[in-house]
Amino acid sequence: MSGNDNPYNNSFGQMTATANYGAAPAPGAGGYIKDTTTAGFAKDVIEESRNQPVLVDFWAPWCGPCKQLTPVLEKVVNEAQGRVKLVKMNIDDHPSIAGQLGIQSIPAVIAFVGGRPADGFMGAVPESQIHQFIDRIAGPAGADQAAEIEAVLKEADELLASGDTNGAAQLYGAVMQAEPENAKALAGMAECMIAANQYERAREALAELPEEMAKDPAIQAVSKKLDQIEEARKLGDPVALEQELARNPDDHEARLKLAKIRNVEGRREESAEHLLYIMRKDRAFDDDGARRQLLQFFDVWGFKDSATVSARRKLSAMLFS
């Protein structure tokens, strides 16, 4: 699901954005690594550890194992992409903090969390152990990226709902670059294509998906929406259908067609009212087809959509009153 074969990988407005999920800046350039002093320890370590874990590397220029550990430690901290920060303290120049913490040999790395020492290790340990130490202190790396991706998807959904199709497409595209098989992002991208009347491209984007991805509710909802659009395009002129209903309000066939057309136009409340009208007049029409059609709309609109909530309330009152 990546590369030039993918329809959603093509240009869509400004859909060339990338998402740098916690990309690490270079050390010493406002990044995750800095030196501190006795005077700066409270701000650099105690206060900062209330935002994210801070590792303090106690070292000295004459210490051979320190020279082995420090470059590996810096590498792993940068790879952690902001899950932790590293603060280095030269104990020759600033011995008091190490003395207060009872550090008697170096290198020593102490992790501060929430303003307090939480864990630590001594000696030039292997890179793999440093990764394990950071995972133990800050949690697995995937958790942070997953939370960021969910936040990006939520923002993209809000942009799409507000009519900013290109802005939404940029964010969905960025998520697809980070997670090529993210079903919510692909469904959102297809929605952007639909909003731009690019129905064939939307079909292509949803074609030949892995079975598990194809079963995702978001993907299925967009597929049903495309089916509804395709059907509605064959139902005739909505103006002619309105005129027919003005002459004969109980032409349920014309009303059902108009409901389907209004749905794909985004006029959901009006579409629902047409179907509810048919139900009030003749539940037997098309073997209760108006109710079945309304339930299909609910599947596409979503459980929390305002049109779904309103129509479901009216439907319940009609069925159970």
Structure description:
InterPro entries: Thioredoxin (IPR005746), Thioredoxin-like_sf (IPR036249), Thioredoxin_CS (IPR017937), Thioredoxin_domain (IPR013766), TPR-like_helical_dom_sf (IPR011990). Residues 15-139 form the Thioredoxin domain. This is Thioredoxin. Belongs to the thioredoxin family. The chain has 321 residues and is an alpha/beta fold. The chain has three domains: 33-140, Glutaredoxin (3-Layer(aba) Sandwich); 144-234, Serine Threonine Protein Phosphatase 5, Tetratricopeptide repeat, CATH 1.25.40.10; 236-320, Tetratricopeptide repeat domain (Serine Threonine Protein Phosphatase 5, Tetratricopeptide repeat). Helices cover 57% and strands 9% of the residues. It has a five-stranded mixed sheet, sandwiched between helices. The two termini are 50 Å apart. Mean pLDDT is 84; it is low at 1-30.
Number of helices: 15
CATH topology term of the largest domain: Glutaredoxin
* CATH top level class name of the largest domain: Alpha Beta
Order of helices and strands: EHEHEHEEHHHHHHHHHHHH
SSE topology sketch:
Layout (H helix, E strand, L loop, with lengths): L32 E3 L5 H7 L6 E6 L4 H16 L5 E6 L5 H5 L7 E6 L2 E7 L4 H12 L2 H22 L2 H14 L4 H13 L3 H8 L4 H4 L2 H16 L5 H10 L4 H13 L3 H14 L7 H13 L4 H15 L1
Parallel strand pairs: 1-3, 2-3
Antiparallel strand pairs: 2-4, 4-5
Helix pairs in contact: 2-4, 5-6, 5-7, 6-7, 7-8, 7-10, 10-12, 10-14, 11-12, 12-13, 13-14, 13-15, 14-15
